[in-house]
Every structure is written in C-alpha cells, then in structure tokens.
Amino acid sequence: MHSHSHSHPHHGTTGSTLQWSLAATVLFVGIEVVAGIRSHSLALLSDAGHNFTDALALFLAWFGFYLQSKPADESKTYGYHRAGVLSAFVNALTLVALSAWILYEGVVRLRHPEAVQEAVMIGVAGLGLLLNGGIMLSLRAASKNDINVRSAFIHMLGDAVGSVAIMAGAVIIYYTGWVQVDAILSMLISVLIIWTAWDIIRESLNILLEGLPRGIALPAVTCSMRSIPGVLDVHDLHIWSLGSSTHALSCHVLIEDVPPSASDVILRSLNGMLAEQFRIFHTTVQFEHVSCAISETGCAIPVHPEDHEGHHHHH
User: Fold this and answer.
1) How far apart are CA 123 and CA 129, in angstroms?
2) DSSP-derived secondary structure letter, 232
3) How far is CA 251 from the centre of its chain?
4) Which one, 24, 33, 82, 314, has the greatest CB density within 10 A?
C-alpha cells in the first residue's frame, strides 16, 4: 500500500472565503426579499429564493470542506473526502427543486401579470451582481480541483447571470411596459440553474457510486501499466475516487520471476507512472509471479498441511 499525502496551502483561505461569503449572501437574501415584495417582481423573489439555497450551499460547502480536511482515523480509514462530494450532491438537488418551483411560479405570473418597479429591480440586481461576482472570483482557484467548492461556484455563477437578466428585464419593462418579461426571465434563470446543476449531480453521483474518475480511461491505464519493464499483465484493475481530486487504484500485476529488489523497482516504476500520467497517488498493487499456479481467483498461496489441518486447496 502506497499512500501519498498532499498539503493544500489554500485550505485555510478557502474556508474563510466560504464563511464570509455565507454571511454576505444571507444579508443579501433579506434585502432581496424586501425589495421583491415592494416592487412586485417575481424575478427578484425567485432570485432571492435562489440566493437562499446559495446560502445553504455555501454552508454545506464550508461544512463539507471542513470535514474533508480532517485526517483519517480509526473509524474513517480513508478520511472524510466524501463529505464534500455529498455536500455538492445535496446542493445540486436543492437547485433543481428550487428551479421547478420558479418555473411553476413563472407560468402563473405569465397568466396573471403584475406591474413591477423596475428601478428597484435594477438597484438590487446590480448589488447582487457585485456580491456574486466577488464571491466567484475568490472561489475560482479552489473550484478547479474540488467539486464541493465548484458546486458553490456554480451557484454564484447562476446568481450573477440571473442578476444581469433581471437588470436587462427592468430596462425592457421601463421602455416597453411589457411586464411579462419579468416572469419569462425568472423561467429562463431556472432553466439555466438546472442545466448547470446537472453536471454537478452526475459527477458527484459517479464518485459516490465509486465509478471511474472523470478524465481517466481504464484501457489507457492498463496499457501504460503493461508498458513498464518486467510487467507481463494486469488484471482485477479498479480505479475510483475518494474525493473530487483524490483517486485510488487496486490491481493484480503479473510479473516475471525476479528477485525482491527487482520487484521493488517495478513497483516504484508503476507508482511513479500512475502519479505522473493519471494523478493517482493511492495504490494497492498485488504482484503475481509467472511460477505461481494461477487460478480463476488469482495467484495461489502455498499452504503447508501442518498450518491448516483439515483444509484442502485445489488449483
């Protein structure tokens, strides 16, 4: 078993960013709810609902980030990497549920349009654009390697686009008086949210079900392992993700009959190649030698009769 720990110097910065982003988002939700009620804008109220789930998303992202940074212990031997992935999955599901509600409200408002105060819409949406844009910039670096932080980043992106749409809608209403555009924009925002959340749902579910990590092809890994000098074949190969950026591998490797020192060289070569080409740092490799009696279950281990009386192994 070869495990390589990797320190993340940005963990503390990302954690504090998530905390202040949460506080700012909760404050903005309150402002947007009051403004939406006073201006009779469904787009503002739907965006407030979206921002409320953003607050939940940021909380879950922070909590998941806190858990996944904890070291492994006796009960969680792999650590808490999956906590962040689970948070991302829950976040994305809440987005889809909220979007369904916004779509329904949008249809109702289309059939029964209401007058809105476009000046309030522009002012609040502009404030929201500044807030979400700032949070996005602060989370951008961490979102590239962490699906949990990326789910929070996607929430902020959806809000930023929604704010731009609301401002555009307010301008249209001001010049044309077409109040239905408010409901149409809220529905378009919800469709955008579902589209962005789906990718998070698919990737997080793949990790939770221990599927092959995104960007890695099993035949490519097998071929690269077989190209290592001394390796004859590879079977029982399994690759999965512990977290969004931490991958693990286990396999059986058939090698030539070589002394222990030579097999150690082969093992180092395999681990070096897997780390460099596929970013796989946690590996469990079981060697099988040509001289072993190979059965359907793998390499047979010699058993002395005196060690296990009454047990017979047939290969």
Assistant:
1) 10
2) E
3) 26
4) 82
- Within 10 angstroms of residue 185's Cβ, the number of other Cβ atoms is 27
- Give the β-pairing of 294-295 and 298-299: antiparallel
Instruction: Check if the beta carbon of residue 91 is closer than 8 Å to that of residue 57.
Output: yes
Q: Cα angle vertex 236, ends 83, 6, to 5°?
A: 40
Polymer length of the chain: 315
- Beta carbons of 85 and 207 less than 8 angstroms apart: yes
pLDDT band (50, 70, 90) for residue 291: low
pTM over 0.85: no
**DSSP, residue by residue, 252-285:** EEEE-S--HHHHHHHHHHHHHHHHHHH-EEEEEE
Residue 130, phi then psi, degrees to nearest 5? -65, -45
State which amino acid sits at residue 2: H
The model's pLDDT over 83-112, given as tens digits with 9 standing for 90+, comes to 778 877 887 888 788 788 888 888 888 888
Enter the tokens of residue 211. Answer: 């599927």
CA–CA gap between residue 13 and residue 1 (Å, rounded): 32
What digits encode the pLDDT tens for the residues 27-41? Answer: 988 888 888 888 877
Cβ-contact 225, 259 below 8 angstroms? no
- CA 188, 189, 192, 198 torsion: positive or negative? negative
Q: Give the end-to-end CA distance of the chain in Å, rounded to a whole number.
A: 27
Q: Give me 105's structure tokens.
A: 């409200």
